[in-house]
Automatic annotation (TrEMBL):
<protein>
    <recommendedName>
        <fullName>Carotenoid-cleaving dioxygenase, mitochondrial</fullName>
        <ecNumber>1.13.11.71</ecNumber>
    </recommendedName>
</protein>
<dbReference type="GO" id="GO:0010436">
    <property type="term" value="F:carotenoid dioxygenase activity"/>
</dbReference>
<dbReference type="GO" id="GO:0016121">
    <property type="term" value="P:carotene catabolic process"/>
</dbReference>
<comment type="function">
    <text>Broad specificity mitochondrial dioxygenase that mediates the asymmetric oxidative cleavage of carotenoids. Cleaves carotenes (pure hydrocarbon carotenoids) such as all-trans-beta-carotene and lycopene as well as xanthophylls (oxygenated carotenoids) such as zeaxanthin, lutein and beta-cryptoxanthin at both the 9,10 and the 9',10' carbon-carbon double bond. Through its function in carotenoids metabolism regulates oxidative stress and the production of important signaling molecules.</text>
</comment>
<keyword id="KW-0223">Dioxygenase</keyword>
<dbReference type="GO" id="GO:0042574">
    <property type="term" value="P:retinal metabolic process"/>
</dbReference>
<dbReference type="GO" id="GO:0003834">
    <property type="term" value="F:beta-carotene 15,15'-dioxygenase activity"/>
</dbReference>
<keyword id="KW-0479">Metal-binding</keyword>
<keyword id="KW-0443">Lipid metabolism</keyword>
<feature type="binding site">
    <location>
        <position position="344"/>
    </location>
    <ligand>
        <name>Fe cation</name>
    </ligand>
</feature>
<dbReference type="GO" id="GO:0016124">
    <property type="term" value="P:xanthophyll catabolic process"/>
</dbReference>
<feature type="binding site">
    <location>
        <position position="404"/>
    </location>
    <ligand>
        <name>Fe cation</name>
    </ligand>
</feature>
<feature type="compositionally biased region" description="Low complexity">
    <location>
        <begin position="120"/>
        <end position="135"/>
    </location>
</feature>
<dbReference type="GO" id="GO:2000377">
    <property type="term" value="P:regulation of reactive oxygen species metabolic process"/>
</dbReference>
<keyword id="KW-0408">Iron</keyword>
<dbReference type="InterPro" id="IPR004294">
    <property type="entry name" value="Carotenoid_Oase"/>
</dbReference>
<dbReference type="GO" id="GO:0102076">
    <property type="term" value="F:beta,beta-carotene-9',10'-cleaving oxygenase activity"/>
</dbReference>
């Protein structure tokens, strides 16, 4: 991977290619900073005392100082709009210090990136994320556009003051390798030791799933997503708690176990040919159609009253939630023309389930909205009656967008086509090339992000063309309708390289190497977008179509009829101290698809969640639960029976530790004040997992 920089020489900007950015971090008791090397220049950043020493977000909260050839430095005020993690800020300072005319002999501008907004000093040519430093996107300028940007920068930075960077003693992230290591299952029910109390009204199963086995024989998995599914069950009843866990007896798990090696490929691991075959047979096996894994390790989903384990392939496994035994394997392709479906469906109050899945054919690829009826007409049914109600053609037929979830309101499905691309040719040829499926996914920020809105009752795709700057989202928070608009809240980041970072060899690093891995990841933050619907689309060019006075998110009509959407940050300023926020959850049963106030998530000051956070999106405040050395799972909200307020209920989270001398536990918090009510400790090892649900009994 290479990066792009601008050299200032003889009054001319020239673009050169340098090795990948080298990132270092130092921090101390009073101040901390970070620095990035760009050839002969070094970007340094300062953060005030008391802030999170591991959140290297120079682009958001730091005063940026760039060393210039004459030994002087210019500082950009922290309120200046940033792009990515600080690289663009360095370039901004460099350009502002020497206002020169660029060498445009080889310059070109293949597409407009981000329109200029009147309410902030936007940069039409620099409106990119951290990827503006990458070779793939390049830095393309026209003379007039660059001069305009430089003038904006010069005027803005005349108001700033130079800052001093103070570095202190280095502190590294703790090792979490034990949380990403194979564990034994606990098939027999064991009692948990309760401290504090669990509410008497709380009765049911907390079900979770995630990877729990990372090798077979001498074969080892490469990626966190590859591990074999381990099912967890906490049963809460009358203040007592029990625990059990079992490996999902998928066909993949059984085939690997029988041969004591990896025989079916996963997301980041290519299964090698049978070593017992001769050379010719091993070579010819590269041309055989690869088997699709049924290792459904991502989430529990509900269809027609039954629970299934799902990933994003065409297979799901139906399970008995009391015994954790697999009862049936279901193939989506037997019912509708899709090649898979997400592990994050949405549910209407009547039990109707909506999902999305891709289909691939000779004419390219489509994103399909799926509807599954709420009831069975026969006791033996699974997803019978499922239908595709809308198909959306991908922007590039053989390079569709990767997506992990979608949004839903009372009347609409919101699909986000983001520039995290799946190269189907690379996927198809992966076995021949000796590469895993993950090799076919790439972050391509030269493309903008697009929102598609579908009427879920009629299946009609609305005509609005909604675009935003490149970003990646894996989990939507909530969506609702208000004053003729769809409002959608998401956990977003400005760089799509995170999938590659979560290789197991990275997660298991220690010391400075682990810090370097963490610093590669763009920070996730909650954002709100507003999408005006059909009635507002005839407004004149340049008008903000959003009528919502309570949100700073804008939707500006462009000359070509497109609507450019700029987001509102939903987080309080001090949320940055928590690093990132992910695994968002709400009071789903009462507020999904409706206007809401609270969501809950995990704070990521590490590569896995290390805190639980409650965010008030109206007042932009937060509450945090944290215990040093422990790592909580996705929070699950359970409402008090007959609750009248949105946050009347409790939060459940499985909290684990790499410290073998301490116990893992199920945590229960009062959702209103975020205070601990109790915990139930179990003397078993657990790996860090993905998702789950609570089922009332």
């Amino acid at each position: 991977m290479k990066s792009t920089k601008l050299n200032i020489k003889n009054g001319i900007f020239k673009k050169t290619i340098i090795p990948k950015v080298c990132l270092h971090q130092r921090k101390g008791d009073k101040h901390w900073g970070s620095e990035r090397s760009f050839g002969s220049r070094t970007l340094q950043a300062e953060r005030p005392a008391g802030k999170n020493p591991r959140s290297v977000e120079a682009a958001w909260a730091c005063h940026v100082i760039c060393a210039l050839p004459d030994g002087k430095a210019n500082a950009a005020d922290s309120s200046f709009p940033r792009f990515g993690l600080g690289g663009s800020s360095c370039l901004q300072n460099m350009m502002a210090s020497q206002l020169v005319k660029p060498d445009t002999r080889n310059c070109k501008r293949p597409r407009e990136l981000e329109p200029q907004m009147p309410d902030s000093p936007q940069l039409s040519s620099l409106g990119k994320s951290d990827s503006s430093l990458s070779e793939s996107s390049g830095l393309f300028y026209k003379d007039e556009a660059l001069e305009k940007d430089l003038n904006v920068l010069k005027k803005y930075m005349e108001k700033t003051h130079q800052k001093t960077v103070i570095f202190g003693q280095e502190k590294t992230l703790p090792c979490i390798a034990p949380l990403l290591t194979t564990v034994e299952e606990t098939p027999q029910v064991i009692s948990a030791g309760v401290q504090g109390h669990f509410p008497e009204w709380l009765s049911g199963y907390l079900l979770r799933v995630g990877p729990g086995k990372f090798e077979f024989g001498k074969d080892k998995y490469n990626h966190w997503f590859d591990g074999m599914a381990l099912l967890h069950q906490f049963k809460v009843e009358k203040g007592t708690v029990t625990y059990r866990s079992k490996f999902l007896q998928s066909d993949t798990y059984k085939a690997n176990s029988d041969r004591d090696r990896i025989v079916i490929s996963e997301f980041g691991t290519l299964a090698l040919p049978d070593p017992c075959k001769n050379v010719f047979e091993r070579f010819m096996s590269k041309f055989e159609k690869p088997a699709i894994t049924d290792n459904t390790n991502v989430n529990y989903v509900l269809y027609k009253g039954d629970y299934y384990l799902s990933t994003e392939t065409n297979f799901m496994n139906k399970v008995d939630i009391e015994t954790l035994e697999k009862t049936e394997k279901v193939n989506w392709t037997k019912f509708i023309a899709v090649n898979g479906a997400t592990a994050h469906p949405h549910y209407d109050p009547d039990g109707t389930t909506y999902n999305m899945g891709n289909s691939y054919g000779k004419h390219g690829s489509c994103y399909n909205v799926i509807r599954v009826p709420p009831e069975k007409s026969d006791p033996g049914e699974t997803i019978h009656g499922a239908q595709v109600i809308c198909s959306i053609a991908s922007e590039e037929g053989m390079r569709p967008s990767y997506y992990h979830s979608f949004g839903m309101t009372r009347n609409y499905i919101i699909f986000i086509e983001q520039p995290l691309k799946i190269n189907l040719w690379r996927i198809i040829s992966s076995k021949i090339r000796g590469k895993a499926f993950s090799d076919g996914i790439s972050w391509e920020p030269q493309y903008n992000t697009r929102f598609h809105v579908v009427d879920k009752h009629t299946g009609q795709l609305l005509p609005g063309m909604y675009f935003s700057k490149p970003f990646v989202t894996f989990h939507q928070i909530n969506a609702f309708e208000d004053q003729g608009c769809v409002v959608i809240d998401l956990c977003c980041q400005d760089d799509g390289g995170i999938l590659e970072v979560y290789q197991l060899q990275n997660l298991r690093k220690t010391g400075k190497e682990l810090d370097q891995v963490y610093n590669l990841i763009a920070r996730n933050s909650p954002r709100r977008f507003v999408l005006p619907l059909l009635g507002n689309l005839n407004a004149p060019e340049g008008e903000n179509l959003s009528p919502l006075t309570y949100s700073s998110a804008s939707a500006v009509k462009q000359a070509d009829g497109k609507i450019w959407c700029s987001y509102e940050n939903l987080y309080p300023e001090d949320l940055k101290e928590e690093g990132s926020i992910e695994f968002p959850q709400i009071n789903y049963g009462q507020f999904n698809g409706k206007k809401y106030q609270f969501f809950y998530g995990c704070g990521f000051r590490h590569l896995v969640g290390d805190s639980l956070i409650k965010v008030d999106v109206v007042n932009k405040t937060r509450r945090v639960w944290r215990e040093d050395g422990f790592y909580p799972s996705e929070p699950v909200f359970v409402p008090v029976p007959g609750a009248s307020k949105e946050d009347d209920g409790v939060i459940l989270s499985v909290v684990i530790t790499p410290n073998q001398n301490k116990k893992n536990f199920l945590l229960v918090l009062d959702a209103k004040n975020f205070e601990e009510l109790g915990r139930a400790e179990v003397p078993v090892q657990m790996p860090y997992g993905f998702h789950g649900t609570f089922v009332t009994i």
